[in-house]
Amino acid sequence: MATVEAYETTAGRRYMVRFRTPERKQTKKRGFKTKRSAEAFASSLEVSILRGEFIDPTAARSTVHELGGAWLQRQTHLKPSTARAIESSWRLHVTPRWGSVPVAEIRRTAVQAWVSDLSATYSPTTVARAHGALASLLDDAVDDRRILTNPARGVNLPRKVRREHTYLDHQQVAALAAAAGRHETLVLVLAYCGLRWGEAAGLRVRDLDMLRQRMRINQNAVEVGSDIVIGTPKSHERRSVPFPAFLSLRLAAACEGKGRDDVVFHGDRGTYLKRSKSGTGWFSRAAREAGIDDHLTPHDLRHSAASLAVSAGANVKAVQRMLGHASASMTLDVYADLFEKDLDGVAVALETARLRAVSPG
């Protein structure tokens, strides 16, 4: 039970409230100018404890900066590239605005204003990452009973504008590959197998099953700053990806003279291959030489692989497995435009089946 006690200061009599937290820790709050205000606080305190809504006033005064270091250290479960992006977002966007603010003083309207200000300058992805970092820290603050609710949840975020996919046809892929020089086989693998860049860069000789025409995607090699970090594929989903027969001899040639643990596609001096620089790298030069938009990226070849597979008759489940999506619904969401023709095909197939069934003779 909370108790009210008077004490003397140079400014006159003041009152304090002594109480035990739900964890049975003895604590107090000082500085009440009147006994009535101290008693009101004591009453509200007892009600909050009974309701399970108690917030330790001392813990609530912790600032975002004071909690941020420990929160960042707890993000070790993330992939290095993701963790680096979050750390950068925290440093550039979260700390300047919220670092000195106690978590108990953050209001939803203030968070919404911050998000709106960021949206005027930065992309929806950048805004969402900054907001997500703040919201995650405040989730932890709720769990630690520093605040009762998370003021960052429920704010309106800018909508991401999905970039229209670029799909290359067989002739365009062939032209791009021919213009890519020593990277010709890599271009063909990206365009016909749908690998992410990091998955292709991390592909090892022992990952190829030439007899079954399969490549096992067990790792990726991702650039984090100036370093290459080896990890598991995105979503941690290892998978087996088929490759068409015409790639067999090309892949065999790419593996010639290499050990089982060597990478198939290597950079300078046998190191991991880094992503081609946009606009000036070999990929952009090849796109221009092939007469294709020089804004083309290696990831567009992954989209092209999906398009070529669907046009060849692959169903959504097969495309999902090839691309390593977490679910078929994700594949449908990303590539809904590719399956529009399937809807027309359903109507045609039903019409044909009906005519066969009901036609006389």
From TrEMBL:
Lineage: Bacteria, Bacillati, Actinomycetota, Actinomycetes, Micrococcales
Source organism of this protein record: Oerskovia douganii
GO molecular function terms noted in the UniProt entry: DNA binding
Keywords in alphabetical order: DNA recombination, DNA-binding
Tyr recombinase domain residues: 163-348
Domain Core-binding (CB): 62-142
One Pfam family, short name: Phage_integrase
UniProt name for this protein: Site-specific integrase
Keyword Coiled coil on entry: no
Gene Ontology biological-process annotations: DNA integration; DNA recombination
UniProt xrefs under InterPro entries: AP2-like_int_N (IPR028259), CB (IPR044068), DNA_brk_join_enz (IPR011010), Integrase-like_cat_sf (IPR013762), Integrase_catalytic (IPR002104), Integrase_recombinase_N (IPR010998), Phage_int_M (IPR053876), Tyrosine_recombinase_XerCD (IPR050090)
Similarity comment: family membership: Belongs to the 'phage' integrase family.
